[in-house]
Specification:
The complex is a heterodimer of chains A (469) and B (103).
Chain A: H1 8-16, H2 22-40, E1 43-46, H3 50-62, E2 73-77, H4 104-110, E3 115-120, E4 140-141, E5 144-148, H5 154-161, E6 167-172, H6 178-184, E7 187-190, E8 210-215, H7 218-228, E9 250-253, H8 264-279, E10 283-286, H9 295-310, H10 328-339, H11 342-355, H12 361-384, E11 387-391, H13 407-412, H14 418-423, E12 427-431, E13 435-437, E14 440-442, E15 445-450, H15 455-468
Parallel strand pairs in A: 2-3, 2-6, 9-10, 9-11
Antiparallel strand pairs in A: 1-3, 4-5, 6-8, 7-8, 7-12, 11-15, 12-15, 13-14
Chain B: H1 3-12, H2 19-36, H3 75-81, E1 85-86, E2 89-90
Antiparallel strand pairs in B: 1-2
Classes of the chains: A alpha/beta (469), B mainly alpha (103).
């Protein structure tokens, strides 16, 4: 039996029934990692204490105190701080940074004694949609190694797709768990903003960022989400609210928004999915969300603004690498100029521009107004429908290098995912019908979005969709 | 965006750029600004007031201003993160310098 094919739930059952041990399970995943990581570049760090962790987890199982995650091998995106472990955020500037503390999400996971396999690849500081912006090379798509795994949490979703982890955690600021989940054929959940503490998550855009789980199926993603969510004193935007009502009857589709800029096969896969849901008895409503067409522009004003502020801490003084210049100013300029990658620098400058005295009204303040409007309109839509359905990305996984020379083209890839982040609502990507490219079957995700605090509706419809697709 | 704008922006953002980067960014940032400008026509006059924070539903969350950790709890581990230290201090270059005021 190949243990890496098991879902988290199945593996848990076998662990507590003593059919397998946590060491067996960890060994099976380590074997896959050793075989596949050199080609796929999923992990930036593979931990050398995996066996010790597995033995400790086994003790907990033997003592009869196992939870669903005890002994389950998981991966962590390398933008989450883990005490005494290297945390690079995919950047040269943090190449040798060893985190002095653990993220709250990790402290919560620690209580379950999972087995952490390692840290997964990410676009530098999670800025990108393909992991091509990682200073440590691109993560290749397990379904076609000429293509990207997606991003920025491409390492996280590829670790699940290539059976190099039973589940993983990434983060989602504008689609960074959902798009790579779609490209890799796994499930990715972006929770409600604030559902998971951001403490210890290396900040990209603080009013958008949220730690996000990925796994083989919706059941497993729910288990991972339950383990990390909740109010945390260290993050004043965090909360413990989770609505109990999981019923889904009506599904809204913003058809007007799907008319252009979308690959024909992806649209067909989406429409097929909607047809199946319809035949299951769901009411499909054509909805309008005024302002939705501007959500990407809003995103690419506010995110660079927050990036430019958050990245100011990387100055070569308190932590990270330093390139010594002739004076302090020169040290700042050289350290940041030479050690930050081109997308990060692009966003820092864009952000500096939209926040500058002459342009803040026209860009930053205006973008906040439009964000507020979109939030309101999205809220109103959820008075009519239980969930919104949309494609995840306009294309299946694209080829390595296909979009990396044109940043605006890369940004447009986020067109269907940023809405959930702009509005702060939860969204899930669940594998739908595959499409064929160059003789290879590529996964395509279906996206469901619900109102704030209504993750349970996403789990409900997601599980249904897994069965009927 | 002309090259001078980019050089000025990079200086404000404390980024040293190569000439190639200046060329590249002046094109790219120009085209991105062209795209994001659309937000200025996003709200019609009849749409109502969506002014900043007041209407976002967001509010500040405060906590008591107490000492969260025993002094020196993290001293050593934080000093270890710094690229250069001397005794118990992070070492940096002189900030004030008579013949070289920062811009």
């Amino acid at each position: 039996m190949d243990l890496t094919k098991l879902t988290i739930k199945e593996a848990h059952k076998k662990l507590v029934a003593k059919e397998i041990t946590a060491v067996d399970l960890a060994n099976a995943y380590l074997k896959n990692i050793q075989e596949k990581n050199p080609e796929l570049n999923v992990y930036l760090t593979i931990f050398d204490d995996v066996m010790e962790q597995a033995k400790k987890a086994q003790e907990k199982i033997d003592a009869g105190t196992a939870t669903l995650l005890t002994g389950i091998p998981i991966s962590m995106k390398d933008n989450m701080c883990m005490k005494d472990r290297r945390t690079t955020a995919g950047s040269k500037i943090l190449e040798n940074y060893v985190a002095p503390y653990s993220a709250t999400a990790i402290l919560k996971l620690d209580e379950h004694c999972p087995v952490y396999l390692g840290k997964t690849n990410t676009d530098e500081f999670a800025q990108g949609a393909s992991t091509e912006n990682s200073a440590y090379g691109v993560t290749k798509n397990p379904h076609d190694t000429e293509r990207v795994a997606g991003g920025s949490s491409g390492g996280a979703t590829a670790s699940v797709a290539a059976e190099m982890a039973a589940g993983g955690f990434g983060s989602d600021t504008g689609g960074s768990i959902r798009e790579p989940a779609s490209f890799c054929g796994v499930v990715g959940l972006k929770p409600t903003y604030g559902s998971v503490s951001r403490y210890g998550l290396i900040a990209m855009a603080s009013s958008f960022d949220v730690i996000s789980p990925t796994a083989k199926n919706v059941d497993d993603v729910e288990i991972l989400f339950d383990a990390v969510r909740g109010k945390d004193e260290m993050d004043s935007t965090s909360h413990s609210i989770l609505n109990e009502d999981s019923s889904v009857k009506t599904i809204g589709v913003p058809y007007d928004f799907l008319k252009e800029g979308i690959d024909e096969d992806v649209l067909k896969s989406f429409n097929d999915g909607i047809e199946k849901l319809k035949s299951e008895g769901y009411e499909i409503k054509d909805i309008k969300i005024p302002g939705i067409e501007h959500s990407l522009a809003v995103y690419y004003v506010l995110v660079p603004a927050e990036v430019s502020s958050n990245m100011s801490r990387y100055d070569g003084v308190k932590f990270g690498e330093r390139i010594e210049g002739k004076d302090l100013l020169d040290t700042y300029m050289k350290t940041r100029g030479q050690l930050l990658g081109s997308e990060v620098k692009r966003r820092i400058m864009l952000g500096t521009y939209v926040l500058s005295a002459g342009y803040a009204d026209q860009f930053y303040r205006k973008a906040w107004q439009v964000r507020n409007m979109i939030r309101k309109k999205v809220e109103n839509v959820f008075k009519e429908v239980d969930v919104i359905a949309m494609p995840v990305a306009p294309t299946p996984a694209f080829k390595i290098g296909e979009k990396s020379s044109d940043p605006l083209k890369m940004y447009l890839n986020d067109i269907f995912t940023v809405l959930a982040n702009v509005a702060g609502v939860p969204a899930i990507s669940v594998p739908g019908n595959e499409v064929n490219r160059d003789g290879k079957n590529l996964p395509v995700g279906m996206q469901f979005i619900s109102a704030q605090y209504n993750e349970k509706k996403l789990f409900e419809i997601g599980k249904k969709f897994e069965k009927i697709k | 965006m002309n090259k001078e704008d980019i050089i000025n922006l990079a200086k404000l953002a404390r980024l040293e750029l190569t000439e190639n980067e200046v060329d590249k960014y002046s094109q790219e940032i120009g085209s991105i600004l062209g795209y994001i400008e659309q937000i200025n026509s996003a709200i019609g006059e009849s749409e109502g007031d969506f002014n900043l924070i007041e209407n976002s539903g967001d509010r500040n969350v405060f906590r008591e201003d107490t000492n969260a950790d025993e002094p020196e709890t993290y001293k050593d581990s934080l000093l270890k993160c710094a690229p250069k230290t001397k005794d118990d201090f992070i070492q940096v270059q002189k900030i004030l310098n008579n013949d070289n005021g920062s811009n």
